[in-house]
Every structure is written in C-alpha cells, then in structure tokens.
Amino acid sequence: MRTPLLLALALAAAPALAQTFPTQNIRIVVPYPAGGSADLMARDIANGLNRTYSPPVLVENRPGAGGHLGAEQVAKAAPDGHTLVLGTISHHGAFKMYKTLRYNPGTDLQSVILIAESFNVLMVRDGLPVKSVAELIAMARAQPGKLTYASAGSGSATHMAAELFKYMTKLDILGIPFKGGAPAQIAMLGGQVDVNFETAGTAWPAIKTGKVRALAVTLPARSPSFPDLPAIADAGVPGYAAVPWYTVSGPKGIPAEIVRKLNADINVVLKSPELSKRWETLGVIPLGGTPEDAARRNEVEVQRWSAVIEAAKIQVE
C-alpha cells in the first residue's frame, strides 16, 4: 500500500508527465494495408495532432491476421502512450472467433478514445445479374456455395457484415478474406468476387468506376450519403444492421494523465470543421468522448458480436 508521501509524489509528478508528453514520435499502427478507411482516419488524426505535437505523429501499416498482427505488437509495446493502434471491430467486437490469438484484445488493449462510426455498402460486381437485395438473396439461395464475397480479413467490419447477412438470411456464400479493405476492393473491381460489403469511406470511388453495383447500406435506415440506397433491413432482411466503429487504443497500463491528454487532444482534432467535412464525404461520423465512453461501446459490441459468432459458429484458427 502506498505511503502518503509516495502518493503525494505520484500525484505531483502526473501533471508534469502530461506536460512533457510526447517525448518521442507517437506511432499510430494501422493493422491493415494503406488505402482503407482505417488508414485514412489514422492519417487524418495524425495530421491534426501534428499541428501541436513535436516530434511528429507517424502512421505505420502493419497488416496481417485480420488486423491482429499489428494490434498484438501494440499490446506488447511499452505502455507510455507513444504506441497506439487504430482499433476496429476485429479488436473490440469480433475477436472471440479466434481460438489461438497470442494476446487478449479485451484485456491487453486500453481505450483512449472512440473516434468514429460508419457503415458498409452492399455491392455486387457489375456482371452479376441482380439489381436488388431480394434478387441477390434469390440467386444465392438458388446456387448455394456458388457466390463469393470479399472481406478485409477475418473479423473485419466487411467480414462481420457479410456473415451477419448470411446468418440472418440462411444463405451459403463463400467468404474470401484479404489482407485489408484495399486488396478486397481491387479483387471486387477486377470481377474476381461477386459480393462485397465495402466500407462507406471507400465505396464511392468503387461505384464511380461502373464496375460494381451498389444495392443497399448496412445502417438501420437510409444514409444521407447514399440517399438512393435502401437499408438492408428495409430491402428484405428485417432487423439487419452492421455499424462499424473505430477507436484509438494503446497497451494496457498507460498512465492516466497521458490517456487524458491524448483523449483531449484527439477530441480537438475530431471537432475540427475541416475533418468533419472530409469525413462526411466518406460516410464517416466523428464521435469523440471520454476513454470510458470508448470502453463502454466496446463492451456492448463484444456482447453483440460474440452472440453472432457463437450462433453462426464462426471460427478462425
């Protein structure tokens, strides 16, 4: 038990610790390839922080294992606030599908801030003769196991949106995992897969190529960003909704004062009119809030997606 003197010294040192932070480059690890929504958000946050931080904040892409390779490295880094990860549903909602992870995302990562939420756009390759969710369901039902869907990796938002769709419709569609959203989109544009639940932030460029056809959004209702697209829930799958959320997290044990400083400074970035305008065009809603808000959102989502994983018997070695 701490003596009164030690406690007083610790309390006195905490503000000084925050005032001198950062003392070296902060690294935001994006556990996916460059070009996806998580990567774009991380770079916007880094650019915002770099207006006041010195040394500068760097973004590193470390894809692999459905986002867990980079996240595991962050979880095992020094808990000093200089190594962070752009967390997604893989780390804060769907990790229980993995039986052999070498870390526990639920206990080894510490929430710093909830940065945003978004949605996915259900799309099909242009050569697939379907123009609605109902027609896609009918085709998949008539040809079980024949259609394929691309995902950004096991446990990613695109994977879980597709698996929820399969589970609720009782369809047999083969999943093809890629090492991130960018390569999954390339495969989709190349006609190598039939279906993709593309993240909203990167859906428009794909749609504009004319090589894919958008059918619906994964929000509970229509999105202002895609006003012509129905919600999947209103287009044949009542009750369907998949709303990805994004966090900045770090290794467990970061001093509270450092967490509070990072949280406050990222909140400032998220409230920037410039960022809000840019993310609006990407279909991304900035959130912010306290570290406790982020932790609560993660807890709710873990319960929700764990139930889906168990019911659908989704397992990754």
Written overview of the protein:
The structure is a single chain. The protein has 317 residues and is an alpha/beta fold. It folds into 2 domains: 13-118 and 244-312, Bordetella uptake gene, domain 1 (D-Maltodextrin-Binding Protein, domain 2, 3-Layer(aba) Sandwich); 120-234, D-Maltodextrin-Binding Protein, domain 2, CATH 3.40.190. Helix content is 42%, strand content 18%. It is built from 12 helices and 11 strands. It has helices spanning 4-20, 37-49, 68-75, 89-92, 105-108, 133-142, 157-169, 181-189, 200-208, 256-270, 273-281, 291-312, and strands spanning 27-30, 58-61, 83-87, 109-117, 120-125, 148-151, 174-177, 195-199, 212-217, 245-251, 285-286. Strand 1, helix 2 and strand 2 (58-61) form a beta-alpha-beta unit. Helix 1 (4-20) runs parallel beside helix 10 (256-270) and helix 7 (157-169) crosses helix 12.
Key traits:
317 residues, alpha/beta, D-Maltodextrin-Binding Protein, domain 2, 2 domains, 6-stranded mixed β-sheet, 5-stranded mixed β-sheet, 12 helices, 11 strands
